[in-house]
Design a protein that fits this description.
This protein has 6 helices and no strands. It is mainly alpha-helical and 123 residues long. The protein has one domain. Helix 1 runs antiparallel to helix 3 and helix 3 packs antiparallel against helix 4. It is elongated and about 65 Å long. The N and C termini lie far apart (42 Å). It binds heme C. Heme C (HEC) binds next to helix 1, helix 4 and helix 6.
């Protein structure tokens, strides 16, 4: 194989693996959003209303944890990492048994849909 073909092969492989990683990333985030956050009867809505069962809190916490280490689809990665870490910390406090209004308010703040979407959700 000549050099040009070798570089082409490497480029093609790199592009393929990057887009596979992108898809996996998108699927993880999409699952959290669809199964956890979206809608009036979502786990997120129940947690903020204080009506989630222990199992529901755990399911949401497990979902949110999967966002740790995901790549920001757009925007600054370190800013995204901070938002994800804040969200993980806030749901962990509730999952750990803190049902105080302050813990719920902190979770609501960390789960600010628009705050995260405006910076990190592709248009
Ligand atoms: C910490 C960041 C963050 C928070 C908080 C957040 N989201 Fe998202 N959300 C994202 C990102 C990033 C995407 C884009 C994922 C992609 O396209 O790869 C997204 C996508 C979505 C989608 C589209 C999913 C799809 O079909 O692809 C919905 C619906 C959604 N979010 C709902 C919500 C709701 C409702 C809230 C608030 C209760 C919320 N999100 C809070 C980061 C967040």
């Amino acid at each position: 194989m000549n050099l040009a073909l070798t570089s082409l092969a490497i480029l093609t492989l790199t592009a393929a693996s990057l887009s596979a990683a992108g898809d996996a990333n998108h699927e993880i985030i999409e699952k959290v959003m669809k199964e956890g956050m979206k809608g009036d009867t979502s786990l997120h809505a129940k947690v903020t209303a204080g009506t989630a069962s222990a199992d529901e809190v755990k399911t949401l916490a497990d979902l949110i944890h999967t966002m740790t280490g995901t790549k920001a689809p757009v925007g600054d990665q370190s800013n995204y990492d901070k938002k994800v870490a804040a969200l993980v910390g806030a749901i962990d406090a509730i999952h750990g048994g803190n049902k105080s209004p302050e813990a719920v308010a902190a979770y609501k703040e960390a789960a600010n849909c628009k705050g995260c979407h405006s910076a990190h959700k592709p248009k």
